């Protein structure tokens, strides 16, 4: 079974994070919410507190297939400041493992030099931080082992793209239909 980790920082965008968790669990893809704060309870940008599955300090990354970064402010900046997370992002990318980010979070990849020559997207107005990327206004971009998306309104297609990565188009399309989402 595929295993995905989504990282929660204080100030994350709740819809972007929890939509991915919900859609992946519906697709029977194991996803764990990982706190980078030292506390399993993490409060998002709009005052919604999420109880995470684990702390980053106790997370085993060996059997993980993908890392996901939700956006939001100051959540995105907090993710980028987390050295253990950034070490994993660099390691996953370098080894060809999948990484994904939505809204402001693709800028973390851009500033880390991960998007050079890759088609990518992000929240409008943050394009300059997609350093080296071939910027697109597509709602979701999937280039090699990197998936990026624009924001809260693209959270469902972003999550469905992750489902496609692990379960294929047929499963993603069937799931989209079951939640009454038109692709």
What is the element layout, followed by pairings?
Elements: E1 3-8, H1 14-26, E2 30-35, E3 41-43, E4 49-51, E5 54-55, E6 66-69, H2 75-81, H3 83-95, E7 98-102, H4 106-111, E8 119-120, E9 134-135, E10 140-143, E11 146-149, H5 155-167, H6 169-178
Parallel strand pairs: 1-2, 1-6, 2-5, 6-7, 7-11, 8-9
Antiparallel strand pairs: 3-4, 10-11
Q: What brief labels describe this structure?
A:
183 residues; alpha/beta; Rossmann fold; seven-stranded mixed sheet; 6 helices; 11 strands; globular
Task: Write structural notes for this entry.
It contains six helices and eleven strands. It is an alpha/beta fold and about 180 residues long. The protein has one domain (about 5-170): Rossmann fold (3-Layer(aba) Sandwich). A seven-stranded mixed beta sheet has the order 5-2-1-6-7-11-10, sandwiched between helices. Strand 1 (about 5-10), helix 1 and strand 2 form a beta-alpha-beta unit. The two termini are about 25 Å apart. The mean pLDDT is about 95.
């Amino acid at each position: 079974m595929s295993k995905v980790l989504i990282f929660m920082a204080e100030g994350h965008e709740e819809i972007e994070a929890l939509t991915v968790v919900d859609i992946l669990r519906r697709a029977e893809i194991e996803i764990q919410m990982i706190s980078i704060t030292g506390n399993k309870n993490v409060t998002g940008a709009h005052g919604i507190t999420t109880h995470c599955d684990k702390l980053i300090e106790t997370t085993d990354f060996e059997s993980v297939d993908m890392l996901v970064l939700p956006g939001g402010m100051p959540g995105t900046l907090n993710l980028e400041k987390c050295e253990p997370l950034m070490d994993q992002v660099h390691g996953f990318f370098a080894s060809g493992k999948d990484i994904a980010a939505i809204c402001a979070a693709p800028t973390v990849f851009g500033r880390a030099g991960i998007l050079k020559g890759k088609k990518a997207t992000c929240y409008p107005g943050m394009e300059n931080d997609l350093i080296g990327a071939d910027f697109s206004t597509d709602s979701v971009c999937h280039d090699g082992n990197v998936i990026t998306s624009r924001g809260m309104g693209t959270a469902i297609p972003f999550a469905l793209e992750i489902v496609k990565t692990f379960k294929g188009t047929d499963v993603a399309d069937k799931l989209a239909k079951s939640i009454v989402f038109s692709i």
